[in-house]
């Protein structure tokens, strides 16, 4: 084989590998459809309202913590002194980052000790959730990013 022929095969081989890689990446990128954050325009248009709600939640002093595991979500709601808040109406909304086109909206049931639980699609990965808690006219919201393993 002549040196010239080796160079031709090397260049053609590199181009062929590049084409195969691009096809694989294009197929992988289109799997699962578009991943647009649900109602992102409405959220941007009402961002001042979001700032007001966040300020009111901070003034209230409550805190919510969530965990996603085995097809369920559990939220713990505490007041400013760290005491459990029972008897609240708690709801989570959001989406799993890899499946943003499938929003979540789950009403949770109280199970005692400031803990609330609800059913959720069992999907591993990161979830962007908003916890809404309301009791006796006091409204609280908190944004969370949690990983379901």
Which labels suit this protein?
Immunoglobulin-like; seven-stranded antiparallel beta sheet; 3 helices; alpha+beta; 149 residues; 2 domains
Describe this entry's structure for a reader.
By secondary structure, the protein is α+β, with helices and mostly antiparallel strands. The chain folds into two domains: 1-31; 40-148, Immunoglobulin-like, CATH 2.60.40.10. The protein is built from three helices and seven strands. It has helices spanning 3-30, 40-45, 47-60; strands spanning 63-69, 72-78, 89-96, 99-112, 115-119, 125-135, 138-148. Strands 1-2-5-4-3-6-7 form a seven-stranded antiparallel beta sheet. The chain is elongated, with a radius of gyration of 24 Å. The model has no long low-confidence stretch (mean pLDDT 89).
Map the helices and strands.
Elements: H1 3-30, H2 40-45, H3 47-60, E1 63-69, E2 72-78, E3 89-96, E4 99-112, E5 115-119, E6 125-135, E7 138-148
Antiparallel strand pairs: 1-2, 2-5, 3-4, 3-6, 4-5, 6-7
Task: Produce a short descriptive summary.
With 149 residues, this protein is of the alpha+beta class.
Separation, N- and C-terminal Cα atoms? 55 Å
Radius of gyration from CA coordinates:
24 Å
Domain count, please report it: 2
- Look at the helices and sheets and give the structural class: alpha+beta
Shape: elongated
Subunit arrangement of the protein = single chain
Proportion of residues in β-strands: 35-45%
Question: Can you tell me the residue ranges where pLDDT is under 50 for at least 5 consecutive residues?
Answer: none
Largest β sheet strand count, sense and barrel closure? 7 strands, antiparallel
Level-2 CATH architecture of the largest domain:
Sandwich
